[in-house]
Write a structure and sequence with these properties.
alpha+beta; nine-stranded antiparallel sheet; 18 helices; 42% helix
């Protein structure tokens, strides 16, 4: 399981030139700032920021929030404010924190002609306003790491294997002296399969300005297979993966000691699992009747299997529903959405294919639920429409309250409860019949099986009073005894059998 999860975790990483963690030719407005721009803004060289990060200083000042004497400071302050706002927006939208200081930068061309220019090391940071200054803080419980995207790309394009120790390396314990740190960094790559050119500029306590390139100029300047290190540093938003499933994979990898099988992992999280034997549990398919009908709010038609799946989910089970097109998967999802919304829950539906989301949204439209649903294909372009929907909802609160408290709503609720309780009563009666038909405690075989195996046209014996003495698992032994008994009867019943005229010894004495 560990190898499978690790393999798919690596596949989640985007190794194309669209990933700024692999190729950053120009600084991106509002999302990246050259760290060298802060050189002597607060009367300190820009490299001192790197030294403060390595020494894990708590608050590292960048610039004043406002300085009436320095325009450069105020421009940087404005950029930091925009970056902080964008970083917060990304966190609210995606739940990801991707703000880092990247230093130093690798620059070159991988085998096959793939351009690369990206940080070698990421320092996870947060932007704060403190004492009229912008400060950066190292994020707690997040380690300084290598740029895994670059290492994976290097391994892929150069056809080499990079040891997991290098890929997963975190800088927890290291020398805070910047020169010693750079020397240790050089030694790490000297002993690895990743060949980097550490030129002398990297051992000078000074940052270089981040140079912007046009794609054509960059390609002309680089030589294939040569990767050099430059003392550049950028503070910016660097998404670490093309998928936000990474934390889930990481969590499951952390559970590896407890769970050795993916199916077992999910089954172990089903609260309805009633026995410890997982093999038996997999084979055991039960309809779930523990959810009361009055607690189920579904408006679309569904069959017994869809209802069973819905009730399993309502009980907290993890569930995978599969089937060819037209078998009712979207119908089930639509019923789940309506049921959860009716109970005051919030529902998020995600899908790789746009068409599938459109089908579900159209179903909700058919029951006038579209006003309570937001269809998002592009979180940037669809924002205006969603805000308009929210505004409409706020404006119609009084209307909704009046409709919910009206006599018609009360009558519908009463009829719904009556119908639900009648359904529960019928289900309970059906369950009693089912248990009776499949009960094997009487004679070791169910009434249904007895009926299906019987033939009323054949000779029969009325066993109404004695059938409990004939258990299914003892029938063969009983038949053998009857055969032996019949052979004795055949022998003893012959006219000239020697014992026919025997005397009764019952009343004889000594």
């Amino acid at each position: 399981m560990h190898e499978i999860l690790s393999y798919y975790l690596k596949r989640l990483t985007n190794l194309s030139s669209s990933n700024r963690s692999l190729l950053l030719l120009r600084l991106i407005s509002d999302q990246t700032i050259d760290l060298h721009d802060f050189d002597f803004i607060l009367n300190k060289p820009s490299f001192s920021l790197i030294e403060d990060l390595l020494s894990q200083k708590k608050d590292i000042p960048l610039a004043a929030i406002s300085d009436p004497r320095m325009e450069a400071n105020n421009i940087l302050s404005g950029k930091l404010k925009k970056m902080q706002r964008i970083e917060k927006f990304i966190y609210d939208e995606r739940g990801a924190k991707d703000l880092y200081v990247g230093w130093p930068f690798v620059r070159g061309k991988l085998q096959g002609g793939t351009n690369v220019r990206c940080p070698l090391i990421f320092f996870p940071i947060e932007l704060k306003q403190k004492n009229d200054q912008w400060v950066i803080q190292l994020r707690e419980e997040v380690n300084i790491t290598f740029n895994k995207t670059f290492l994976l790309a290097y391994a892929y394009y150069h056809g080499v294997k990079i040891h997991d120790d290098l890929l997963e390396k975190v800088f927890e314990i290291y020398d805070a002296d910047s020169r010693v740190f750079r020397t240790e960094l050089y030694q790490i790559f000297k002993e690895s399969t990743v060949n980097l050119n550490f030129n002398q500029d990297n051992f000078i306590d000074k940052l270089q300005s981040f140079k912007n390139f046009k794609k054509s100029d960059f390609e002309d300047e680089q030589k294939e297979g040569e990767i050099k290190l430059f003392p550049e540093a950028v503070i910016g938003i660097f998404p670490q993966s093309g998928s936000y499933l990474v934390p889930d994979y990481s969590f499951m990898l952390g559970e590896e000691e407890k769970v050795q099988d993916i199916e077992e992992f999910f089954l172990s999280r089903n609260p309805d699992k009633s026995d410890d034997d997982l093999d038996l549990y997999r084979q055991k398919y039960r309809f779930i009747d523990k959810i009361k009908e009055e607690e189920t709010f579904t408006v679309f038609p569904m069959d017994a299997y869809q209802e069973n799946a819905l009730k399993a989910i309502k009980k907290g089970n993890s569930l995978v529903v599969q089937g060819p097109p037209g078998t009712g998967k979207s119908q089930l999802i639509s019923n789940l959405i309506v049921d959860f919304i009716a109970r005051g829950k919030k529902v998020l539906v995600v899908c790789q294919k746009r068409a599938a989301l459109d089908v579900i949204y159209q179903k909700l439209q058919s029951i006038d639920m579209d006003a309570f649903s937001a269809l998002v294909h592009d979180f940037k372009n669809d924002r205006k429409k969603i805000f308009e929907q929210i505004q409409s909802q706020i404006e119609r609160i009084d209307e909704y309250e009046a409709r919910n408290n009206g006599l018609d709503a009360v009558q519908i609720q009463r009829e719904f409860l009556q119908a639900s309780r009648r359904i529960d009563q019928i289900v309970e009666e059906r369950e009693e019949y089912r248990q009776a038909f499949f009960d094997e405690s009487e004679c070791g075989i169910s009434a249904k099986e007895l009926y299906l195996n019987s033939n009323h046209t054949q000779p029969a014996i009325n066993m109404k009073q004695v059938y409990r003495y004939f258990l299914q698992n003892e029938i063969k032994q009983f038949i053998q005894k009857v055969v032996h008994y019949q052979s004795y009867v055949d022998d003893f019943s012959k006219e000239k059998f020697i014992w026919n005229d025997r005397l009764n010894f019952k009343n004889f004495t000594l």
